[in-house]
Design goal:
The complex is a heterodimer of chains A (242) and B (207).
Chain A (H helix, E strand, L loop, with lengths): L2 H21 L7 H37 L1 H18 L12 H32 L4 H6 L6 H26 L10 H54 L6
Helix pairs in contact in A: 1-2, 1-7, 2-3, 6-7
Chain B lengths: L1 H18 L14 H11 L6 E7 L5 H17 L3 E6 L4 H16 L8 E6 L3 H10 L1 H4 L26 E6 L2 H10 L10 E5 L4 E3 L1
Parallel strand pairs in B: 1-2, 1-4, 2-3, 4-5
Antiparallel strand pairs in B: 5-6
Helix pairs in contact in B: 3-4
The chains are: A mainly alpha (242), B alpha/beta (207).
Amino acid sequence: MNSSSLFDLIGLVVGFVLTLMVFSYVFGDNFLFRFATYTFIGAAAGYATAVVLRTLIWQRYLIPLIQNPGENFAITAPGFVLGIWLLLKASPRLSRLANMPMALLVGVAAGTVIGGALLGTLFPQATATMNALNISTRNSLQLSNSGLDLIVWMINGLFVVFGSVTNLAYFQFGGSASCQSSALNGIILRMAQIGKGFIAVALGVLFAGVFGAALMAFVDQVTFSWNAIWQLIGLFFLDINL
Amino acid sequence: MRVAAFFILVLVVVLALYIGPDQSSPVLQMPAPAAVLGFHQQLLNLSSSSHVLLALDFEPGYSAEMNTMLQPLLVQLQRQGVFVTAVSSSISGALIIEQAQNDLAASTGDPLKPWRVQNLGYLPGGPAGLLAFALEPARIIPVDVIEQKTWADAGLNPAAGMDNFSLVIVATDSTRSVSTWAEQVGPLRRQSEIELLMVSAQSAGGD
């Protein structure tokens, strides 16, 4: 057995044993499960630290600074100083001093996310909803104009517009209890109820997606364990090389 | 109850593995959605001189779910000889990209057509990091993960930024990641000809 096959075998056995240890949770919280999860957390934290040290600290800050200090100092130094300043958060006594870099971090992140949400989500989605029943948009997509296709497209567009309006009614125009006698308020409250239904369906789809992902991961691990068992049987009892 | 459910699920999976796929059962013929057809057409429009930015934004635990959609896409890119620049906002990104390369090599078994890929690895900084990368990619990640191949080595023009790429493809299992790419990279399409495509565990399509 060469070294590559030996490492494959070790990887196979370790993976198989760790999978069984995680599956042991089905019998309740136990030492084997905790050992496996702590191992994963430790390995993940160690890997993350190594990646950050190598790709960020070394590649982005130190290498440019060593190679061309004159040109790169002004770009790398502020980030480096702010990063070290942020480490004061770890100390209960000095953590308040780190509020400035933290404020900068949160401010930049919030500005980026809000700007992106406006330009990348809100405006395009509003435009798409407005164009859901716009025949010229449909023509620009060069879709078939047969009768049935047109009806399906129209129903789809109506559904999108109706769903958007009722969702907005649920979030923004729920109506207040004090003016429930108003006819308009009654309509908005009914629309809000329908919007609640749309939201429930959307959350149900998200949950199904999460459940589907978990099930797929489970199937993958059972498949891995099944194949590992047969490979180990083949290796140790039938003398078949990996 | 929990133990019973576990063993039933294991039994179903093992039985499916033991019996294998039923070749005699009829294949359900359904027309592909317009978004999937559009996605496929975008891929067919690529040539061997095209460059694609591929973002693999998922954790290694979800690779089984994502690979179902991802592998046919990678096979198609490999067949067309497209040069792929891969990046990930997951800290395990470099490994995910390498694993995708290995899975591709194992599934095609075609050593004559190696996957032309530049593995940029982890893109830090969340939405702000992604925006910075979208504006000046070659400055944010100047070399690949093994510090050997620069953008120029890969046949890309560092000054051209995202205009180097004919397509940006994001493969993710997370709606948050999809919206982050759409929000940070999507608006740039007004200034250039970037096409942004998404691959989720469920389907594929344009944004």
